[in-house]
Amino acid sequence: MLAKFVAYFMTHSNAILTDAAESIVNVLASGFAFYSIYLATLPKDENHPYGHGKVEFFSAFVEGVLIALAGLIIIFKSGYDLLFPVAIRQLYEGAIIIGVTGLINLFTGLYLINTGKRHSSITLEADGKHLLTDAVTSGGLVIGVLLIQLTEIFWLDSVISILLGMYIIRNGYQLTRRSVGGLMDESNMELVKDIVGIMQAHRHDAWIDVHNLRAQQYGADLHIDCHVTLPYYFDLNRVHAEISSIDQLINVNAARQTELFIHADPCLPQCCHYCKVNGCAVREEAFIQEIKWTIENATKNHKHFEQ
Fold first, then answer.
1. CB count in 10 Å sphere of residue 280
2. Which single residue of 35, 131, 208, 237 has CA 20 to 30 Å from 5?
3. Which SS3 state, helix, strand or coil, does residue 73 take?
4. Using the 8-state DSSP alphabet, how is residue 264 labeled?
5. Is residue 219 pLDDT above 70, yes or no?
6. Residues of the domain holding 230
7. pLDDT tens column, 86-103
8. 212: left (phi over 0), alpha (psi -120 to 50) or beta
9. End residue of a domain, out of 134, 150, 183
């Protein structure tokens, strides 16, 4: 951030000021992200039975808002200077400084994104994407500054700054949208798709259908709940064994440890035509065909015969 402001005071370039202003957001957002990650690591307690992981979504929301706000300020400042231009100078020196800071942000951003994905941390991913955005804008800025120096069309400085501001706002919106989805317990559909695929590939005959399947993420913690239809004559020990086998299946094959809440439903006569249980003494209809579980039917809140 300091290096970029040095470059701005050397050049008086609006485009470079754009990059420097976004770096202020980087510093503020990273400080908040640091505290959020600390909170997310705290264990569950009586007041927070699901842990403290949701603070990561709030952190990403704040970072997205700050990014978008920086973009708006950049656009207004650049629009003003487009009408009332200021002389710019020493663009080559400024371009070198911005280029170096861009490379540092590029490598740091990629490291944070990979670490965030490995540990399922939306805060680290958000901060990494923010730095990656900064690296992209720095790269575009270096090209623009060199173009201005070569062509001596100095009003391009404000135009480039406005374009970069719009790009920054777009990235801020995307980050905010994702964080709001997490805060509102929006189901993670990619995760649901993976879970349905695992259950379909390893399904037991006694698992007649699975429905009302949902998944939420609380920081690094993952929670899945669903309804599973089992033969109505199973005793409680058998029901417990089947549900435990689903829990074990998901936690062995899924990418990370998951907490499951499974509601057992008794089968009905209408389930018989897609039930594969052999030697069922109460079957009322012949088996016709298996209904393949997909994200479309597994997420609906009813048994599959009601489709």
1. 15
2. 35
3. helix
4. E
5. no
6. 189-306
7. 667 777 888 889 899 999
8. left
9. 183
